[in-house]
């Protein structure tokens, strides 16, 4: 059984499903070592670990429209969160183009051929495919901005995860983040492409100063602002009970890591998403708020049985 979902244009519905999908593992492909909330949840077993996922996006307390978008396709293990920017709903358009382009790329026969001559070394072919999809999304946003005056200057951040068996690849552009939560420890897997974090990395300001800076929302790399973009890429392995949190800065800037670990410790990922969004609001988030959770667990015998017996099917919001 397969499943996919993304935020609809109206953004006023909630989709929930429980899906089970068998996927083969190919270790040789990896190197050693006014809208309301929108949500979905699904389940998909790999060869040895079950992947559970749930996601929500919320307009937040201040904004008049939601420029965040997110989506996934369990058949190909692709999960995406984007935070758009640009006036007159152009940011919403940019983030939707990014999510749709990445998902559509993996729904076809993905090529790892670089776009625009870019080359990515030292990472898996899965990560290179993520990079290619993101480069195509960048081109689509950039071209749309050039053609439509209302979309001029629009852009988007992106974080994307590609899961294959018990391994996963991460790609990002901008300041949306991926966190790994393992045994109540929280590790940020991505580096923000923002002005303040560039200053932190150069030793010009401290992390505490960056967290209180009025320049936090200034990003130095985004989709659509130039005709090419270079995403950061990395490969990782799952341990049982690991949780990945993909989120926009409307959450990461207002929810402490301790609260993230506490929220995902409960059984329900749907409730964890709701709790994290409420925590961001309680922290006075002034932006749209989006989170997408992925948990790897050992499947029960019932999960394995249902995974084998489930018929073909697909669920999508679009």
Gap between N and C termini, in Å?
18 Å
Q: Quaternary status of these chains?
A: single chain
Q: In CATH, what is the homologous superfamily? A: PPM-type phosphatase domain
What is the radius of gyration computed over CA atoms, rounded to a whole number of angstroms?
A: 18 Å
Characterize the biggest β-sheet: 7 strands, antiparallel
Number of strands: 13
CATH-derived architecture: 4-Layer Sandwich
Low-confidence stretches: 8-38, 308-318
What fraction of residues sit in β-strands?
25-35%
Which H/E pattern describes the elements? Answer: EEEEEHHEEEEEHHEEHHHEH
Mean pLDDT: 80
Count of DSSP-assigned helices: 8
Which bin fits the share of residues in helices? 25-40%
CATH topology: Phosphatase 2c, domain 1
Shape: globular
Under CATH at level 1, the class stands as Alpha Beta
Number of domains: 1
Instruction: State the secondary-structure class.
Output: alpha+beta
């Amino acid at each position: 059984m397969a499943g996919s979902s993304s935020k609809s244009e109206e953004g006023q519905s909630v989709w929930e499903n429980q899906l089970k999908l068998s996927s083969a593992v190919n270790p040789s492909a990896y190197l050693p070592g006014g809208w309301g909330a929108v949500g979905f949840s699904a389940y998909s077993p790999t060869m040895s670990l079950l992947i559970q996922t749930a996601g929500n996006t919320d307009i937040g307390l201040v904004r008049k429209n939601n420029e965040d978008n997110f989506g996934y396709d369990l058949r190909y293990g692709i999960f995406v969160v984007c935070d758009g920017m640009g006036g007159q709903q152009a940011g919403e358009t940019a983030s939707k183009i990014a999510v749709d382009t990445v998902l559509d790329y993996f729904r076809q026969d993905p090529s790892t051929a670089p776009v625009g001559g870019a080359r990515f070394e030292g990472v898996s072919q899965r990560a290179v495919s993520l990079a290619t999809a993101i480069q195509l999304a960048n081109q689509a946003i950039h071209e749309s901005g050039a053609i439509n005056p209302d979309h001029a200057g629009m852009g988007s951040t992106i974080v994307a995860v590609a899961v294959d068996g018990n391994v996963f690849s991460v790609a990002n552009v901008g300041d949306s983040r991926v966190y790994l939560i393992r045994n109540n420890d929280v590790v940020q897997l991505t580096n923000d492409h923002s002005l303040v974090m560039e200053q932190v990395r150069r030793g010009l300001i401290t992390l505490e100063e960056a967290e209180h800076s009025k320049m936090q929302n200034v990003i130095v790399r985004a989709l659509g602002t130039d005709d090419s973009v270079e995403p950061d890429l990395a490969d990782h392995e799952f341990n049982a009970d690991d949780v990945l949190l993909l989120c926009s800065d409307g959450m990461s800037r207002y929810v402490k890591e301790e609260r993230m670990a506490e929220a995902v410790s409960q059984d329900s990922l749907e409730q964890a998403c709701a709790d994290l969004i409420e925590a961001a609001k309680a922290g006075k988030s002034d932006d749209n708020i989006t989170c997408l959770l992925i948990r790897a667990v050992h499947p029960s015998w019932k999960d394995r049985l249902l995974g084998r017996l489930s018929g073909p099917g697909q669920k999508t919001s679009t």
